């Protein structure tokens, strides 16, 4: 049973429900091909039906872990740290990012933007979902917009989201893995007709790495 003290620590962002942490190659978006240490935080209520890490949704199944331990582990492996989930902004990211910054690390986040943007970030990958749209300010700070394409209607959603981000934000369309053979040709055609967009692929899955 989780004690009240631990719950208070989680609420303050001093402990986080850590699902997993691992060193690998960033497979998606602008930084694909870069060695990076991933911190996957549990907890998400966005509920994408095609999510490939549904086991991250229930924060209670992942042990509250002190951010000092998380940072110590991360600093051993890489200068590039990716915080992902679940939905990491479910929690206050301020304490974790300050501690990572104190180690001189570059910190990226992958987020749906469904909650208030907290923390200090060198790179923000915003991947909005229809189920729970982003909180406004994250649109202004996003470095890349990554829209997952499951069907043709997602291209309409992508344009709606692109209209909200800042002018320097890089725009990506990424095929949802389970329907990639079906939607990738559609994405390619769309990007060729609308070259402000780029294609993002889950290259780590093609490489068979985490």
Characterize the structure shown.
There is one protein chain. The protein is of the alpha/beta class and 210 residues long. The protein has a single domain (4-206), classed as Alpha-Beta Barrel (TIM Barrel). 28% of the residues lie in helices and 24% in strands. It is built from seven helices and nine strands. The chain is globular and about 55 Å long.
Derived structural class: alpha/beta
Q: If helices are DSSP runs of H or I spanning 4 or more residues, what is the number of helices? A: 7
What is the gyration radius calculated from CA atoms? 17 Å
What is the name of the CATH architecture? Alpha-Beta Barrel
Assign an overall shape: globular
Main beta-sheet strand count, sense and barrel state: 9 strands, mixed
Strand content: 15-25%
Number of domain units? 1
Q: Portion of residues in helices?
A: 25-40%
Q: Which topology does CATH recognise?
A: TIM Barrel
Please provide the ordered H/E string of secondary-structure elements.
HEEEHEHEEHEHEHEH
Q: Average pLDDT value?
A: 95
CATH first level: which class? Alpha Beta
Question: What is the CATH H-level superfamily?
Answer: Aldolase class I
Strand elements, count: 9
Tell me the distance between the termini.
31 Å
Q: Which spans have pLDDT < 50 for at least 5 consecutive residues?
A: none
Kindly report the spatial arrangement of strands forming the biggest sheet.
Answer: 3-1-2-4-5-6-7-8-9
Question: How would you summarize this macromolecular structure in one to three sentences?
Answer:
The protein has 210 residues and is of the alpha/beta class.
């Amino acid at each position: 049973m989780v004690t009240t003290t631990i719950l208070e620590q989680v609420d303050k962002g001093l402990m986080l429900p850590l699902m997993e942490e691992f060193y690998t190659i960033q497979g998606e978006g602008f930084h694909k091909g870069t060695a990076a240490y991933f911190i996957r935080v549990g907890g998400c209520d966005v509920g994408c039906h095609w999510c490939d890490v549904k086991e991250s949704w229930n924060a209670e199944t992942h042990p509250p872990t002190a951010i000092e331990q998380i940072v110590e582990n991360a600093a051993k492996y890489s200068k590039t740290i990716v915080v992902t989930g679940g939905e990491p902004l479910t929690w206050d990211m301020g304490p974790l990012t300050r501690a990572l910054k104190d180690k001189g690390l570059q910190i990226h986040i992958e987020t749906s933007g469904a909650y208030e943007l907290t923390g200090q970030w060198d790179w923000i990958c915003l991947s909005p979902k229809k189920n729970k749209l982003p909180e406004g300010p994250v649109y202004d700070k996003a470095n890349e917009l990554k829209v997952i394409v499951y069907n043709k209607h997602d291209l309409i959603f992508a344009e709606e989201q692109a209209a909200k981000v800042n002018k320097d934000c890089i725009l990506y369309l990424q095929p949802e893995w389970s329907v990639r053979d079906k939607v990738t040709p559609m994405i390619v055609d769309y990007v060729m007709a609308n070259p402000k967009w780029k294609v993002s692929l889950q290259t780590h899955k093609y490489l068979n790495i985490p």
